Amino acid sequence: SSQTSPTTGPVHPTVPESYNHSTSLTVYDSQGNSHIASTYYVSQSPGTTNTWSAYLFVDGKPINVDGSAATLGSQSSVTMSFDTAGKLLTPMPIAYGPIASTTLDPNLNVDPINLTFDFTGTTQYSSVFSVNTLAQNGFPSGNLVGINIDNSGIAYANYSNGKSQPLGQVALARFANPQGLAKLGDTTWAQSANSGERIDGVPGTGSFGKIQSGSVEASNVDLSAQLVQLIIGQQAYQANAQSITTEKNITDTILNIR
Fold first, then answer.
1. Mean pLDDT value of segment 198-203
2. What's the CA gap between 54 and 117, in Å, rounded?
3. How far apart are CA 75 and CA 11, in angstroms?
4. Is the pLDDT of residue 220 over 80?
5. Is the pLDDT reported for residue 89 higher than 80?
6. pTM for this structure?
């Protein structure tokens, strides 16, 4: 929204008269500790129309654009300029940092925090200030809750914080003549001269199939028909066995004739 610049001193979170609007979101450091990053917007009108200054505070502490600790009144800011139609002209995204962890807490020892803000899509219209979308890609610490494999064979570790981390990918191999593989027993087969050389690949590419995680392979035959064939085979076996027994008895009778 188009407003005039406040007239009360430097930007300060506890002084609403020192800024026009603000937004906040939770960000995370390398150990998963949460921090509140707040941006305070100050209109530069009427001095410089269609221009705003954005000041960053993390955990209530003023931060310069280069990530160093700032002093109220001399804090550096990002300039956001709009054209006459209200479209943002400032190149995006904007990088802040690195912010040393001791700047936020003398007892905090984590990797420096680098924050990148993307204000793409921000507009300046004659309407009430509002935040339509607000998102960040950091995560708190989490515990492993499960492992999932997608149809391309990539194994993911799933964590309680909602993040998934790829662990590796299932490798597949095929042969020009699968029927020529050498049987080793226990459903194990080996490459042979008849099978051809092994061709390596990954699921879902070329002629390689896809992975069905958590699925149980169903039978690929008609069980009812196979049961009927089994009964027929069993009856044939019994009939042949009876014939052999009868033949043996006749033979014994003939040989025992004196």
1. 89
2. 11
3. 9
4. no
5. yes
6. 0.67
